[in-house]
Design brief:
Layout: E1 3-6, H1 8-21, H2 26-41, H3 52-61, E2 71-76, E3 79-83, H4 89-107, E4 109-117, H5 123-132, E5 136-141, E6 162-167, E7 173-179, H6 186-195, E8 204-205, E9 211-212, H7 215-220, E10 222-223, H8 229-244, E11 267-274, H9 276-280, H10 284-296, H11 306-318, E12 320-323, H12 324-332
Helix pairs in contact: 1-2, 1-3
Amino acid sequence: MTAQHLELDSIETLARDALVRAGASVAQAAPVARSTRLAERDGIRSHGLMYVPVYAEHLRCGKVLGDAAPQVARPRPGAVRVDAAHGFAHAAIDAGWPVFTSAAREQGIAAMSVHRSYNCGVLGHHAERLACDGLVGLCFTNAPASMAPTGGHRPVIGTNPFALAVPDESGGARLVIDQSASAIAKSEIVLRARQGEPIEPGWALDSSGNPTEDAEAALAGSMRPAGGQKGFGAGLMVEIFAAALSGGNLGLDASPFSGPKGGPPGTGQFFIAVDPGAFSGDAFGPAMARLAQSIAEQEGARLPGARRAANRARIEAGGVTVPQELLDRIAAA
């Protein structure tokens, strides 16, 4: 298979130009292109350039409104509410960010909800952004229903990830937890299906509720929750924050993040930012340093987010190899 080697700047430009061609304003396209760059930088290929043709398709069919103008409101001192207006979540999050982070510093804690939204890329990047602002970040995003409750077979909630990041003392993140409620992110199964590869045992059920290792059958069936009922409970928590509390569509009512059918998905996100000094005094930094060290010093163990950090250093230095087939699909999008 032929491929091209691209630097990260070129990846961001490629994504932005493709989205603008498909009908997005620069204000909508630029944050998504930056998110695409960050995903490729961290080795999260399932959320990188692979998604650009899908984004372009959804702009053209109206699942995402390319000229959307997010509206930001602050109904309470510690509450920020953003209407994404059926545009990309990234632009809506950027629109509310200055008000949100200022509120967290003023109040000690603040929350921002986003509704009438779309998927927000790698959720951990938003949590990490809060950590880089010196805040503890806890983030939720819901998705179209693709996961059945334990013992059931009809999808009720999405893979529904949550992410947590904490600041270090140098303007970065000490650790980043980013995990979906399902055994694996659905985008990984989509990637396997596109490549004609089987999935791992325990990832999914087919439409009859039977375990499957066929990626296409999994997409027609149900994702399996991580840890059984505990994983479903985590996904339900995310659904409450990101959909019910934000005013976004439940996963039951959201159109798929793939394919042209169904109109805008109208999903939601919910972000909580905490100024550690408001609650711990000076105790937070030393406590986190000790906790992180107790994990990192053990042979074979690693802090959450360490693999991404290693990928980041390598890819920032060496760039990304992109299959020509994917570049052709982006050019045609």
